[in-house]
């Protein structure tokens, strides 16, 4: 078990909800403003920021618990040297901060089976945070360079990580009772960054930031079965639609959002959103997507029926990682 030092905030020193901040709605969109070290809570109906909660330095990714009570924020830090997680009570709009030991550069994070699973890029590890005990109760060595993002198979028996500087994806496979985990390293394209698993669990797509391709991994064989050229300058994220019919790829290099038909493997549409298209959040019913346009300090709302931009709104400086609270 990794030892944790809970900050004074965890002892109740966090300030109460600031004057003027409104109640957190259901549903809600949460957006990280990296340069402000802040989480913004947005009413998705009005696109109004109803509250802001401070985080640790330069937060990059966020996930929300199934019951919608807790948001876990990975504080990546300057030069990827962060060593904290921010645990945010979304109703109280309070943060407490956990200091991590031997886990540097926390980044990608997913909620699964009542716990939060995250990468520790600088330590070449993945780990798991249990909100019930306020502890990191499991870590696992990946041994690849810059383990950036992770996704989890539907049954939870395989975790896939994108390892940017090793040009690889690692499949971390468990035994039946999840007491032992083994690694399979899968060579992919150059600089895999964004990663997602198809809704049917049959494919993992790794968006390669360095060569404008997507590596399609067969989850049964744990091998790349196809490479798709999507013509991006620097792919940042890839997200499947809930029905699996298409995937969205954000290009931080061009500011474009690329729509790829998953059956034909062809580009359906390309939208120019602005400067530095980054984080993507598709709402649960698949009707629209929120895409962070980090360089313009705004978030675009994209209609996923007609693939056009409905509007944009501001949450703060340098928006990126997003999550949804039911």
Protein described:
The strands form seven sheets. Strands 1-8-7-6-5 form a five-stranded antiparallel β-sheet, with no helix packed on it. Strands 4-3-2-29 form a four-stranded antiparallel β-sheet, with no helix packed on it. The chain is globular, with a radius of gyration of 18 Å. Residues 1-16 have low confidence and may be disordered. The protein has a domain at 231-317: Thrombin, subunit H (Beta Barrel), CATH 2.40.10.480. Helix content is 0%, strand content 55%. It has no helices and 29 strands. It is mostly beta strands and 326 residues long.
Q: What radius of gyration results from the CA coordinates?
A: 18 Å
Secondary-structure class: mainly beta
Portion in beta strands:
over 45%
What is the annotated CATH architecture of the domain at 231-317? Answer: Beta Barrel
Global geometry: globular
Report the count of strand segments.
29
Mean pLDDT: 94
Our measurement of the CA-to-CA distance between the termini, rounded to an integer number of angstroms, reads: 31 Å
Q: In sequence order, what are the helices and strands, one letter per element? A: EEEEEEEEEEEEEEEEEEEEEEEEEEEEE
Helix tally?
A: 0
Helix content: under 10%
Give the biggest sheet. 5 strands, antiparallel
CATH topology-level name of the domain at 231-317: Thrombin, subunit H
- Give the CATH level 1 class of the domain at 231-317: Mainly Beta
Low-pLDDT parts are 1-16
Strand arrangement in the largest pleated sheet: 1-8-7-6-5
